[in-house]
Amino acid sequence: MSMPWTTFAGIGYIGLFLLTGVGCLASLPRARTFADIEVRYGLVGLLSLTGLWALFKTAFFVVPISLQSAIYTIGLISGFGSVWAWLYFASAYTGRTLHKNSTLRRLSGAIFVTITALKLTNPIHKQYFTTTEATTPFRYLAIEHGLIHWVSTSLSYVLAAIGLFMIFEMYVESGYDTTPLGVLTALLALPVTIDLVALATPELIEFIYAPVGVAIFAVGVLFIFGDQFLAVRTTAQGDAATIVLDETNRIQAYSPAAANIFPELDGATGMQLDDTVPTVAATENGDTDQIVEGNGDDGPRYYLISPRSMTIGGSTVRILGLSDVTESERQRRNLIQRERELNKRNELYRAVISASFAFVFQIDTEAKFSFVSPSVEDFTGYRPDMLNGEPISILGPNEQTVKEARDYLDRIINNGEAIQVRGHPIETRSGNTVYADIRAEPIYEPSVASNARTTEDIIGAQVMVRDASDRRKREGLISVINRVLRHNVRNKLTVINGHAKMLAADLEGNSASKADRILDAGNHLLNLSESARRIESHRELSPNLESLDLVPVVSELLAQLNEEYPEASVAMDIPETAIAETQPRIKTALWEILDNAAQHTGPEPTIDVDVSVTDEQILIKIGDYGPGLPETDQKVLTTGEEDPLVHGQGLGLFLAHWIITNLDGRVSVATARGTSVDIRLPTPQNEETDETDDSNGGGGGPHADNDWSNNTGGGDNGSGSSNVDDKAESQTDH
C-alpha cells in the first residue's frame, strides 16, 4: 500500500496544509503590529489556532495510522477554537462590543468546553466520528462523521457566517471601494464549498479544508490589502468623512462623504494629495490652520482635519478625518471680522482725533481725568499716565479758570448740556498758558437705552480739545490792528470830511465838484470802518440757536426801511408768526440785504418781501426790480468769498452771509428779473441744516464748526453802511 508522501495526491495534501500552517504562524509577528489591541488579540488568536489546526492536519498524513485519530481530534479542537477567535476579531474590527459581553463570553466558553469534551470522549460514545482504513488515493484513516460532528460543524458555520456578516456590513457602510477586500474575505467560505464537493466526489477526501480559507484571508489582509483593511477600520471608528494616504502621501481611499466635501477627490485614488486637494495637504505640512473650507448644501462649510496613523507590520497609512466644525468656525471668523472692524474703527477714530483735535479726554463725576488720549503730551507736556486719576485743576492756570471749568462740568453732569467754549486757557507742564477750543458732551451709562436716558445716568463727560493758541494770537493782533486802524481812519476821515465840506462851500464849479467827490469817498471809508466794527462784534457771539419769531423782526425792519427810504414802495406778504431756530442778530443780516435792495432797485424803488413757513424751514424772499446784483457780489453773499480785484465796495453783504450761515441758514440769489435773495432758516422741528440745491448758492455748515474757525472776506454792492440804530445793534450783539 502506498503512503501519502509517496503519491502526488498525498504530497499535495501535505504541502497544502503545511503551507497553510506555516503561513498563518509566520504572519503572527505582522499581526502583532496592529495598533488596536482588541483587533490584534482577535487576529493573533485566529492565526495561531488556524495555524495549529493546519499543522495537525499535516501531521495526520505523516504519523502512523494508529495515531491519526488522536491527531485529528486535537486538530478539531484547535479548529473549533479558531471559530471563537474569528468572532472576537470580527466584533473588535467592526467596532462592536460583542467580544466584551461577559454573558456571551461565558456562554461561548461553556459551548467550547462541551464540544471539546464530546470530541475527547469520542472513543467511548463514537458519536462524533468513526474511522475506517482507506487506500484511495493513498493509505490513510478515513473519517466517518457522526451526528455530534454535524451539529458542531453547523454551529461553527453559523458563527463564522455571523462574523462574515459583520465584516461585509461594515464594508458596505464604509463607502470605500472594497471589492478586492471583499473577494479576499469571501475566500473564507471557499473551503466550505470544497467540503461539499468532497462529499460527492471520491477524488477528494472528506477532511474539512477551512484552515486554507483563513490562511488566505489573513495573509492577504496583512501583506496585500493592509492599507484598505486599515481604511475600512477607520470608518468603524466613527469618521464619516476620511481620506486615507500611504507613506508617500498618495491617496489610497476616501469616503463618499469626503468626496462630497471635496469633489476633486473623485477618481483621485493613487494621486498625490498635494496635487488633488492642496488645502488639505497644507494642513499636513503645518503651513496653515487645521481647518479647511469645503463644499456644503448651504454654502461653504468648515472642517477640522484630524490626522492619525495606523500600522500593520511595515505598512503604515495615515487617515485624515474631517469633522464638521462649521458653526464654531463661523462664530470664530465672525469674531475675527468684528475685531478687525473694531480695530479699523478705532484706527479711524484715532486718525480723526489726531487730525481734528489736539487731544481727547474723559472726566468722571468727581471732576477727575478717567481717560486721556496719547496726543495730550504734545499739547500740554503731560503723559496720559500723569493725568489719569488727577483732578481737572491740574491744567488750570488760576482759580478763576478752574471755577469756570467746574461750572461747565456741572452743567454737563447735572443738566446733560453739550458745552462749547472758545479760547479756554490751559496751563502746560512747563507752566506756560495755551488756549484751546473745547467741546464737551455728557457720557451716559452704556447699559441704559438711549430713549430711556436721564441725567441720573450720566457718568462723566467726553471732552474734545482743539489748539486755539495761534488763532488767539492772530485774532488778538487783528483786533488790535482793527481798533488802531478804525480809530485813526475815523479821526483822519473826520478831519478830511470837515475840510472837504468847507472847500465845497468856498469853491465853485469844477473845484466844488471835486471837493464833493472827496467828501463822498470819505463817507464811504467811514462806512467800511463801521462795517468792520460790526463784523468783529459778531465774531465772538454764541452760536447756540434759539426759537425766535421773525414776524416782529421783519416788521420792524420794514418800518425802518420806510423811514430811511420814503420814496421806496414795499410790498409784503407776512404770516402772523414765523418761528425759526436762529438768534436776534439775524436782524443785522436782513437789514444789510434790505438796505442793499433799497439802494439799487432803480429810479422808482420797489421791494417785495415774502415770508413763508413750512415744517422744515422759514423762507424769506427779498426782491427788487433793479439792474440785478453783479456776479461778484452774488458770490460774496452766497459763499462769503471776495474777488480781490473788486473788493472795497463794502462789507455789508459779507456780514449778511457770515451771520446767516453761522446760524445754520442758507442764502441763494436769482437775477432773472431784478434781484431775488432767498434766506432759509431752520425751524425748531428741523434744526439740522438742509444741505441741498447747491445751484441756488446755498452754503454754510453746522454753526459749531463755523464758530471754531475764522471767516474773512468782503465786498457788497452798496455803501456798506448800516442804518440799524445803536439800540437795535446793541440788542443784536447780545
Explained architecture:
This is ATP-binding protein. Keywords: ATP-binding, Nucleotide-binding. The protein contains 26 helices and 19 strands. It has 734 residues and is of the alpha+beta class. Helix 3 runs antiparallel to helix 4, helix 3 crosses helix 10 and helix 22 (586-599) packs antiparallel against helix 24. The strands form 5 sheets. It has a 5-stranded antiparallel β-sheet, with helices on both faces. A 5-stranded antiparallel β-sheet has the order 9-8-12-11-10, sandwiched between helices. Strands 14-16-17-19-18 form a 5-stranded mixed β-sheet.
Distance between the termini: 145 Å
Helical fraction: 40-55%
- Low confidence ranges: 644-649, 686-734
Computed over alpha carbons, the radius of gyration is 54 Å
Oligomerization category of the chains in this entry: single chain
* Content-based structural category: alpha+beta
Biggest β-sheet: strands ordered side by side in the sheet: 4-3-7-6-5
The pLDDT mean sits at 79
Q: Strand fraction band?
A: 15-25%
Count of DSSP-assigned helices: 26
Shape annotation? rod-shaped
Please count the beta strands (DSSP E, at least 2 residues each): 19
Profile the largest sheet: 5 strands, antiparallel
Considering the chains and any ligands shown, give keywords for the structure.
single chain; 734 residues; alpha+beta; five-stranded antiparallel β-sheet; 26 helices; 18% strand; disordered C terminus; nucleotide-binding; ATP-binding protein; ATP-binding
